[in-house]
Amino acid sequence: MQDDRTSRAQPIIELKGVEKHYQMGSFLVKALNGVDLKVFSGDYISILGPSGCGKSTMLNILGCLDQPTVGEYHLNGEDVSRLDDDSLSQVRGKRLGFIFQSYNLIQQLSVLENIEVPLYYQGVSEKKSRVIATELAHQVGLEERLDHRPTELSGGQQQRVAIARALSNDPAVILADEATGNLDSKSGADILKIFDELNSHGKTLIMITHDEGMANRTNRTIRLKDGHIAYDSKA
Question: Which of 107, 151, 211, 229 has its CA 20 to 30 A from that of 18?
């Protein structure tokens, strides 16, 4: 984990004055309102806040699923805030890994095939993809489930597949959206243990959550309120 910051450190992520506006009839809603944020390599961050505070919007911006109305978003030093859809798709595929509450697995594919999906879109050879997917399946404890379909797996096992898939492109940042929200307490704890281990090996993780217990595991906590950062434990 990386706790010390120096003025010379180059952040992986930097948001500068980011706002996101939505027009709701005659009303202008500012889902994000002047957000400044730096994320450094090895950060393990939880983002919390009440419903409607801007957590989902923040995730969409950080994940290049949406663009800010105002402000800049620098990812690995590149301003991605004004890229077109095709360029944003390339950024997502090469630099980011996503883990969602609902797993988002392809039901017709096996464990290995689901893990291989991002590699297919990156043009990685079938042989190399199979090697990478097999190693990641072992890493998350699914070595005995390689040929199983999602419907043959428990919720916790499906989320393990999603984690392995998120790791397949060796992303700079992993974004997790309520990753344990559909799991029982034991399965949720197992998933969080995997997150802890990934961070201990240098992976940068950002978790959107409402769970204070999850926040207590991370080395940095950010609280959103009314579209802005009300608290940052590393500020």
Answer: 211
What is the domain class of 13-232 according to CATH? alpha beta
Residue 8 has pLDDT above 80, yes or no: no
**CB contact at 8 A, 175 and 39:** no
pTM of the model: 0.90
Per-chain mean pLDDT for the chain: 92
Cα within 13 Å of Cα(194), Cβ side: 27
Pairing of strands 44-48, 220-225: parallel
Rounded to whole angstroms, the Cα distance separating 34 from 225 reads 12
**So what's the pLDDT on residue 211?**
83
Q: What is the pLDDT of residues 48-77, one digit of tens each?
A: 998 889 999 999 999 999 999 999 999 999
